[in-house]
């Protein structure tokens, strides 16, 4: 059986007698590989290697660093099929969706190709007599990223591309459930010309995450995962004086106004609710139709279309989505469906008990639809992260907006309407970080930035875009004076002013 090892100093770095994690093939429900789980000592070795490599990389002019990113972009494109198959085999998502996962990360690599321009500082000539002031952005040193299972290419690339382009070395701790793509990306970066030690991949679980959070040479940590862990990681890293950026879970709502184009809206909702088996932090697991008539028509159309969805293996081009990631996660999703029924929701379509012929041990779940969900239900308040869509009926626009605003999560939200006034008021007032207007999954493009509010994001800087550049650099401001004519000014015991 294949063993997935750390990648340090530009090469595979097997450990001596490590603990092993199991990497499953969710389609068949069997272990397909083992992943070595690192200790704090293993992390120390990786960080020491990165510390030694980083100064020369940071000193290299940014245009040369950008050229590595250009080469990396080309190599990802050349290896897209292989990467997508590797990703799908460990995660379970269908191949086209796996390519989308890689493409959204590739977009951030493209953004990082512009790093010479993005790193330019500010300059004020003549801020005082003979005095100029300028600010530069300098790299931090060694940074780290801890990533979730659900986007094995996109999220590592969100982090490592800006971090490295800014002149840092980076320690990537991918999800232990689907770690292979991270290693392959690190190999491609070496092929692209990245010096050894600038990207080290360290596998592991909580043990190595804690070691990252406590390591004095790691200056900034980016985390994406579930909210309780995001909050814990944020607190522990910040207490150790690190710069922290921690994205958490989500429960995104789609508000459906009576004037929405319902055929288009239903098509949008299906992909957003059930795509990737609902395992997306920007999935749309709650719809809020406004008015009884909207709810009735929406439900009818949803039922008709859900019955046409095909659940299948990731390599089936006809499949809309594949298995969920693990047996435990499947059981957890099923327990939320039980809970919803016990809480009084109406189970319109039950996705449990589905079995795919020839793949009876795979972690498949058919689509589930729940109606008459209420804000008091625990199954509404918590993230399910599976192919389960909940209908929460509202009487008015104001009531509909109050649900995402009051929810503990605030990652994404969407409104479906033809009325610009509603859309504008919605975008201005809803307490959620990313808003779609007739766009079901409003993940911002790579030159904007990604971040949720409330329990969906801890820390104050978003992922990628200019926030990515800000997160991975620190500003140094220089005030300089070049006295002319050898004049010596009087001593001053007053705080210097430019007056
Ligand atoms: P997770 O929180 O279980 O794991 C995320 C990372 O944390 C992994 O690398 C894991 O090894 C590590 N980890 C797990 N338990 C830990 C512990 N006790 N202490 C320290 N580290 C620990 O998340 P997941 O199941 O891999 O991913 C799904 C979650 O991620 C969902 O909640 C989803 O909404 C969220 N997510 C959020 C975003 C976003 O940008 N907001 C994007 C993708 C996924």
Report on the structure:
Keywords: NAD, Oxidoreductase. This is methylmalonate-semialdehyde dehydrogenase (CoA acylating). GO terms for molecular function: methylmalonate-semialdehyde dehydrogenase (acylating, NAD) activity. The termini are far apart. The chain has 16 helices and 23 strands. It has two domains: 2-248 and 456-478, Aldehyde Dehydrogenase, Chain A, domain 1 (3-Layer(aba) Sandwich), CATH 3.40.605; 253-437, Aldehyde Dehydrogenase, Chain A, domain 2 (3-Layer(aba) Sandwich). Helix content is 38%, strand content 22%. With 499 residues, the protein is α/β, with parallel strands linked by helices. The mean pLDDT is 97. Helix 2 (62-78) runs antiparallel to helix 4 and helix 2 packs across helix 7. It has a seven-stranded mixed sheet with strand order 15-16-17-14-13-19-20, with helices on both faces. Bound molecules: nicotinamide-adenine-dinucleotide. Nicotinamide-adenine-dinucleotide (NAD) binds next to helix 8. Residues 146-151, 173, 175-176, 205-206, 209, 224-226, 229, 247-250, 281, 383, 385, 411, 452, 456 line the site of nicotinamide-adenine-dinucleotide.
